[in-house]
Amino acid sequence: MISVKNLRRTFGSIIAVDDISFDVETGQVLGFLGPNGAGKSTAMKMLACFLSPDSGTATVCGHDIITDPVAVRRSIGYLAENAPLYGEMTVAGFLNFVCDARDIKGKDRKKALDKIVPSCSIESVYHQTIDTLSKGYKRRVGLAQALIHDPDVLILDEPTDGLDPNQKYEVRRLISNMAKDKCIIVSTHILEEVEAVCTRTIIIAKGKMLVDSTPDQLKQQYHGSLEEVFRGITKTAKC
After folding, report:
1. Which of 70, 101, 158, 226 is the most exposed place for a label (fewest CB within 10 A)?
2. pTM of the entire structure?
3. Above 90 in pLDDT, residue 212?
């Protein structure tokens, strides 16, 4: 579903993503890990066609991010690190706006909203303006817009950022329930989240891929917790 080939992106003299390659299939939840500034968000923005690579490419559902970006955008649900929301809109107005953009109409729109609003636990704020919401509720509205068209591929950058423990649990359960039918990439700093939902883990630092494995295999290989593994790999890496 996702195939990344030699993807590279720089910002001036800074190499944000340095020649990374990997594939993700349906049924996999890939945890994308790395310290701040590792290149995670930049890589995800390129996969979502918000940034163009300097070299290399990727395909999503068979569509190339360079030559067919519109088809890629139709195929994915993308939750950005700082998801853009229109503060003056109500949650209902914003999600209907997203349905307009996604060309979801009539009975299909009602069905989509009836499913996503309770799934993301935003019924209680559905008629509030987005400006009045807490950070956690804004995050859940961002997640709702990523899911509303039931995409085959999800690219989620820090999906539980700002959520309380109960909300984090619900979002993790939602991701786990969707995993068998979708191809999912999750970027997170929360290692317990990786262990809870991810079937595979890529660790990057300074734009380079350091590890491509599973959480259990990493713990066995390095004889420690995932936190200890992460610290050891990212601190000793010479990139």
Report:
1. 70
2. 0.91
3. yes
